[in-house]
Specification:
The structure holds two protein chains of two kinds. By secondary structure, chain A is α+β, with helices and mostly antiparallel strands. Chain A has a single domain, classed as NADH Oxidase, CATH 3.40.109.10. Chain A is built from six helices and four strands. In chain A, α2 runs antiparallel to α4 (84-103). The radius of gyration of chain A is 17 Å and the shape is globular. Chain A starts with a helix and ends in a 16-residue tail after the last helix. The mean pLDDT of chain A is 96. Chain B is mainly alpha-helical. Chain B is globular, with a radius of gyration of 14 Å. In chain B, 21% of the residues are buried. The mean pLDDT of chain B is 88. At the A-B interface, α3 and α5 of A face α1 and α4 of B. Residues 11-12, 14, 65, 67, 109-113, 147 of chain A line the site of flavin mononucleotide (FMN). Flavin mononucleotide binds at residues 11-12, 14, 65, 67, 109-113, 147 of chain A.
Chain lengths: 171, 99
């Protein structure tokens, strides 16, 4: 799938088929995460790939924002607390995960609504490691319709704040 | 995912506890309300005859009785954390028994 097409057609998926993800595809997705940029190339992240149904069930129980019976999930965490730069790094890695999954026909959803303390205990996290984001994964049951996105003319200015770019009118 | 009623009840209780934890730092009553729901669900358990693992639920009931649910935010947060650990320990015990 072409990158620009993948970016446009990726959706947050919250309803999944009961079909496991082949390990080889999961590894491709994690490989995409590994190649994400990070501030100072620090790569502060650790990715916990959760596929054991018992662990996944507990992750779901402790994540109020986790919807649907996903086949797996990736818990992305960082060492040394949630510094602003680490949060940005995790965001880049998470987008790579979502796009790589989409290119493989696998749906995903970023999840920030989870209870950190619970997730840390479920995955036996060491002191100082903090989960930042969870990404659920699975074959989409239903692909959601595109949500409303603000038009370019509303979110882009030219050269200075507030200055409209006439080329963007109507886009 | 959850087939047995026993597991479904366990999941429902733990989810409710986590909802309560989600709002513990907010000024609203949301966390308290979810704790109310949590204890009501716990009271329901002895009436459900399909649930055999009642020792665990009895321990939870005792824990809640020992501490007043109202209390300040810090007390509630500490109680929630201890209840959470009881769920994690019970989950580990049950999964090691299954495997
Ligand atoms: C940082 C972040 C946190 C999110 N947390 C949740 C969440 O907890 N639960 C959920 O269902 N969706 C969550 N989402 C997904 C958004 O709701 C979704 O991206 C948005 O509605 C736009 O839809 P789209 O991803 O299909 O373009 C999150 C997205 C981001 C970027």
């Amino acid at each position: 799938m072409e990158v620009l097409e993948a970016i446009k057609t990726r959706r947050s998926v919250r309803s999944f088929k009961r079909k496991p993800i082949p390990d080889e595809d999961a590894i491709k997705i994690l490989e995409a995460a590994r190649w994400a940029p990070s501030g100072g190339n620090r790569q502060p992240w650790t990715f916990i790939y959760v596929k054991d149904p018992q662990v996944l069930r507990m992750v779901k129980n402790c994540s109020p924002g986790f919807y649907g019976d996903a086949a797996a999930a990736i818990v992305i965490g960082v060492e040394g607390g949630a510094r602003e730069i680490s949060l940005l790094d995790v965001g880049f890695a998470a987008e790579n995960i979502c796009l790589a999954a989409h290119a493989l026909g696998i749906g995903s959803c970023p999840i920030a609504s989870f209870i950190k303390e619970s997730i840390k205990r479920i995955v036996d996290a060491p002191e100082g490691w903090e989960p930042i984001l969870i990404v659920s994964l699975g074959y989409p049951d239903k692909m959601p319709a595109p949500p409303p996105k603000k038009p370019l003319s509303e979110v882009v200015y030219l050269d200075t704040f507030g200055k409209r770019w006439e080329k963007l009118e109507g886009r | 995912m959850e087939e047995k009623l026993e597991d479904r009840f366990f999941d429902l209780l733990l989810r409710t506890l986590n909802y309560a934890m989600e709002f513990v730092n907010e000024r609203s009553y949301a966390s308290l309300r979810f704790m109310d729901l949590f204890s009501s669900l716990l009271e329901l358990q002895p009436l459900i005859k399909e649930i055999s693992e009642d020792e665990f639920y009895e321990k939870l009931r005792e824990k809640i009785k020992a501490r007043r649910l109202m209390g300040d935010r810090e007390t509630r947060s500490k109680l929630q954390s201890e209840l959470l650990q009881m769920f994690i320990d019970e989950w580990k015990r049950r999964t090691s028994k299954k495997s």
